[in-house]
Design a protein that fits this description.
The complex is a heterodimer of chains A (428) and B (358).
Chain A (H helix, E strand, L loop, with lengths): L1 H14 L8 E7 L6 H22 L7 E7 L4 H12 L11 H14 L3 E2 L17 E2 L5 H15 L8 E7 L2 H4 L2 H11 L2 E7 L7 H10 L3 E5 L3 H12 L7 E3 L6 H4 L10 E4 L8 H11 L14 H24 L6 H9 L2 E2 L1 H7 L8 E2 L10 E8 L4 E4 L4 E2 L2 H18 L8
Parallel strand pairs in A: 1-2, 3-4, 5-6, 5-7, 7-8, 8-9
Antiparallel strand pairs in A: 9-12, 10-11, 12-13, 12-14
Helix pairs in contact in A: 2-11, 2-12, 3-4, 5-7, 12-13
Chain B lengths: L12 H4 L6 H16 L1 H4 L2 H27 L7 H18 L5 H20 L7 H21 L12 E2 L4 E2 L2 E2 L7 H24 L1 H11 L1 H6 L4 H28 L1 E2 L1 H4 L2 H14 L4 H25 L4 H22 L4 H14 L5
Antiparallel strand pairs in B: 1-4, 2-3
Classes of the chains: A alpha/beta (428), B mainly alpha (358).
Amino acid sequence: MKFMKLLASMVLSMSVAGVAYSDLVIPSLEYRTGPYAPNGIHFADGFTDYFTLLNERDGGIGGVPVRVVSCETAYNTEKGVECYESTKGQGSLVYQPMSTGITYQLIPKATADGIPIHSMGYGRTSAANGKVFSHVFNYPGTYWDAASIIIKHILDVEGGDISGKNIALVYHNSAYGKEPIRTLEKLAEKHGYNLTLIAVDHPGQEQKSQWLQIRRERPDYVLMWGWGVMNQTAIQEAANIRFNMENFIGVWWSSSENDVIPVGQGADGYKAIALHGVGDDFPIYDDIRKYVLDAGKAAGDGTNLGKVLYNRGIMASMLATEAIRTAQKISGTADITPDQMRDGMEALKVDAARLAEIGLPNFAPPVEVTCSNHGGPGLGAIQQWDADTQTWSLITDFIAADREVVDALIAEDSAAFASENNITPRNC
Amino acid sequence: MFYRESGDFKTSYIQDQQIFPILQDRVFVIAVIAFAFLVVPFLINDYWEKSVLLPVLIWSLAAIGLNILTGYCGQVSLGTGGFMAVGAYASYKFTTAFPELNMFIIVLLSGGVTAMVGVLFGLPSLRIKGFYLAVATLASQFFLIWLFNKVPWFYNYSASGQINAPERFVAGIAVTGPNAPPWATYLFCLILVVVLALIAKNLTRGRFGRSWMAIRDMDIAAEIIGVAPLKAKLSAFSISSFYIGIAGALFFLVYLGAVEPTEAFGIDKSFLVLFMIIIGGLGSILGSFIGAAFMFLMPVLIKNILVNGLGWSTDIVAHLIFMIVGGLIMFFLIVEPHGLAQLWRVTKEKLRLWPFPH
C-alpha cells in the first residue's frame, strides 16, 4: 500500500505539470508500437505533419498555433482510456481515437465531458445519426456505407445480378470487424447472395484455418475487414491459395501499401475501397516537403508521403482544421473551446473549390455535415493495386452507398442506443 | 526501537489471533483504510479515478482471487481472463435483465456465477497437476472467450458484439456510466475490495486456508492427515473464481464501461494477473496489492516521466517501458524470489530487531 501511494503521488506530480497554454490542442491517440503499428505509423505521420505544416507556414489556424499532443495507445482500449483522461484536461478540442474499440469507450465519456469525437470512417456507424449522438461524428463515410459500396461494385462487375453468388467476409473478431455484418446480411436479403462469416482473432497473424475454409467453400468474392498485420497475412494467404485477387476486396482500413507490398507479385489486382485520392500528386505535398520535411520537422522518417494511410492522416487533420476554421468563424474567437469545436464540426462544409484552395484538388468528394447527418456524404471509390508499378489507382468514381438500406439500419440502431441510454433525440 | 511488540501484551486468545498482532501494524492499516475512505474521495479527479485508483483496486481483487488458487492452494491457473469475462458478462446480463437490482447484489451475483463456472473448470484439477493443469485452465480461457463471441445472447444481440454498461445507481448516485462522479465509482470499488480482502485474509488464516496450504505443500501428506482434496481444491477454485468474477464485473461496469471479449479479457490478462502475484508474492494478500500496483502503475509512471516530463517520443517510450518493466521484474525476482511482499516481511523482521540485530 505504501509503495502504491508513493507511485501514485509521483504520477500526480507528473500529470499536473504543464497546463495553461493559449493554443489549439489536438490530441493524437496514435500507435507506433504493437501489431497495428505498420498501419498506425503512416496515419500518425500524416496527421501530425499536416498540423506542423500549418504551424510553420501559416502560424497555426486563424493565427493560433496548433499543439498536437501525442499519446501511444498501441490500439489497446485501456491505454486509450488513460490517454483520454490524461489529455482531456489540457483543453483538447476533438478526439480521433483511431480505433473502433476506443471509440466505443469514449462515446459516452466524451459526450458527458462535452468534447467532440471524430471517428473518420470507423467507430460506431449509427453515430451518423446526429440527433442521437450529439458529440460523435464519423463523416465522410461509415462502415455500413463501405459494405454497401463494395456490394454495389460487385453488382457492377457482375452486370447487376448477384443472386446465388457466394460472398465471404473475413473480419477482425472485434467490434470493428463485426460492424458490417448486419448490413451485409440485409443486403444479402435484398440481392440474394449467400454470406459466409469468417472471424480472425486478434492480432491475426494466424489465418491458415480460415483460408482453408475459403479454399474449400470457393466463394465468388471475399471481403475483408482487417487491420494491422492481419491485412498482409490475409492477402498472403489468399495469394497462397491462388484466390483471384480481383475478387478480393478490402475495406478502407485494408487498403495500404504495407498490406500488399510484402506479398509481392501475388497481391497484383487486389482491390480495396478508398475514401480519398491516392499518391502524392497534390500541390500540398510541395509545401509539406518544403516546410516540414526539409526543415527536419517531420513526425516520421519522411518516407511515407503519399502512401494511402498517410493521405488518410492528412484527410483527418484537414477535416479537423476546416472544422476549427468554421468554429472560429461561427464563434468569432480564434482560441475556441471544445463546445465551439463541436458546433464547427456540425456546420462543416468542404466543397471542391475549398479542397483546391487547400492544395488537395479532387482529393476527396465534398463533405457536408448537418445537425442530423454526422456521417457525411458516404461515398467511396474502388482502388486497385498494381504490383508492377507498386501503385494504387482508382478504378471507379466515388460511388454512393445504398442509402435506403443503410439509413434504415442507422435509424434502427441509433434508436436502440437512445432508448438504452434515455436520450431524447434532438430536433433538427 | 520504534517497531516492536514488547509491552504490547495479549490477555486473550482473540487478541492473540488478530490479523495484525503488532500495534504499529494495526494503526498503520487502519490509518491507510481511513485515508482511502475519508480523504481520497475529496481529492480524486477523473484522471486519478480512471487511470490509477480504479484499475489498481480491480486488479488487486483479481490478484487476490488468483493468489487464493495459485498462491495458497498451489493450482496454477491461466484462465483468469476467461473468468473475468464470465463476471463481466454475468453482470451485463443481470444489469440489463433486472435494472432495479442493487449494484452490490449484481456484482456479488456475478461473482457467484463465476464461482460455479470456476468449479466446473476446476474439476480436472482433481486428476491432473502442475503444468498439465495450467494447460487445462488455458482451455477454459479460450473456450470462454470463444463462447462470448459466438453466442449473441450474451451480448444482447448488439450489432458490434460489444457490451456496454448501462447507467446504474446506488442510493441515487450513479456508479456506472459516463456521468458517475469519480468519488462514487471509487468508493463503490473500495468498499468491495476492502471487505473482500478482509474476508480473504481471514479465510486464509482459518480452516479453509490451512487445508489449501496443506494441499499446496504436499497433497499426498495432506490427504493422509485427513484433508479432502476434492473439497479443498474445488473450494479454492470456487472462491478464487468468485473474486476474479467480481473483479471482471467491476472492470467492465465501473472501469471501462464497454468491452469486447477478445481484447478486454484475452490471454494477456491471464498472464498479467499471474505476473502480479508472482511479483507481489505468492500466498500473500498484501502481495496481491503490491503486485497489482507494481504491474499496472509502473508503465504509467514511466510513461508520465519520460513523455510528459522529459518530452521523449511516444513510440520510443512505449518500447522502453517493455525493457524497463521487464528489467525490474528480473531484478526483483533475483533479489527476492518470493516477491515484494517477502521484501516487506524481511524489512519488518529487521526493524523489529533494530538496533540490536543478532
